[in-house]
């Protein structure tokens, strides 16, 4: 086959963020933008002496992934890849299913064409997650090296053949995007028990947000578990996700949230664009993702896969401390990592943990190296079917036993970048320990620097943590997944033991903490009368 080298010039905006490289779709469509990033990613793996014999390509179905596929295939073969495994002819599969394929077929790496929860389409975002042979996202050492390579790249390698020929090369194999994943889920959870829960007349609603999880959800919930077909909504994957912002939270998945708050079903749930996030809802009850992680940990023994127990658990540091209390009861370790699933990979690889999660609607385990929305949903269904309790009962019981962490995460999205960066820089520098703000006394402020306990890799400046003397915790950081301006995220929590207060609405309970954050971070002072665009 004719390999050719195509001259190219570096772009200055190819730094991977929290979960891969994300940019406006139109930027990704600029000549050579995609090619440069793909080549740089391969260059780094080749330079470190890694094998690149087998490579997986998958995606969440967003535009124009399917058009990018032949370009990527040509580049992979031209760079020495011997077998390309494409997950689904249409390139629609949840990220966890793609992670599973990488592991199951012992691939050396992969590309996931997704910008996850970011809106899609020509006026939305596109992205590439770079995956390693463990089925997890490239660690920071690798993404930093890729970024360095994008700054000096001079050519990329491709094949001198048509797109059609590329798609039909003998080296290219198309895999069923649904079966392997559905089988994996069936091997981990008690499908008979869940089927019994449906058979008993319990009602369900799953919102696929017009993205990648619809077909898998129909196979698992309807075909294998007996849910009614009409309970799975927005399940046809659309290249622009029908214009919705596919982020399963009360702000962006408002219709299913409202439906469940009005008592629409016994159990409701939704997944994000690439299927690695989930939202859990009971009848008239919303489960905070941090509480959800604690619940999964508490009830892990009911799940066949976790019958032998947990080796340890991990949460990202902005996630609430609810899981810590459960881990203490179980006598297992809790690790706290920076934001981003890639930081869990080494702990999972070393078997220090086998369950983990983030406040951003993501939980997962050691069977793959990505978070997994449907995993979390099946975990909950497994718990409900085995305990016979409702979602509300499960959560309230935990609060009654352990106390409740009142927790809130909120973001100012798409704000002025220099201002946002200045706010964080100023907070890093100021000395506020012992100071009084909005009725609170600051006990301690620190910058969160992380050292991976397995690899020793250091990741500095992962956010700012503040404790007050009354036990309130504040975490603040800039988002690494946005593509326009900057997004400042705040995470606040306060522990309560008094049961009579458990039913106070979170926003009321934490009202004074929101004020404290505004005062010390000078949000209104910088942005005027601004309201958070998303609040959970
Ligand atoms: C966000 C979340 C983070 C998550 C990341 C990728 O990152 O906060 O917890 O791992 O998205 O999720 P950031 O930098 O915007 O806060 V996904 O579902 O977009 O791959
Ligand atoms: Co996602």
Plain-language structure description:
The protein is α/β, with parallel strands linked by helices. The chain is 34% helix and 24% strand. It contains 19 helices and 26 strands. The chain has a seven-stranded antiparallel β-sheet. The chain is globular. The N and C termini lie far apart (53 Å). Alpha-D-glucose-1-phosphate-6-vanadate is lined by residues 18-19, 116-117, 272, 276-277, 316, 339-341, 358, 360, 479-481, 489.
Oligomeric state, counting identical vs distinct chains: single chain
What integer value in Å does the Rg equal?
Answer: 23 Å
Helix coverage percent of residues? Answer: 25-40%
Uncertain runs are none
* Ligand roster: alpha-D-glucose-1-phosphate-6-vanadate, cobalt (II) ion
Which outline best applies? globular
Mean pLDDT: 97
Strand order of the largest sheet: 19-20-23-24-25-18-26
> What count of helical segments does DSSP give?
19
The tally of strands reads 26
End-to-end gap: 53 Å
Strand content: 15-25%
Q: State the major sheet.
A: 7 strands, antiparallel
Q: Please state the structural category.
A: alpha/beta
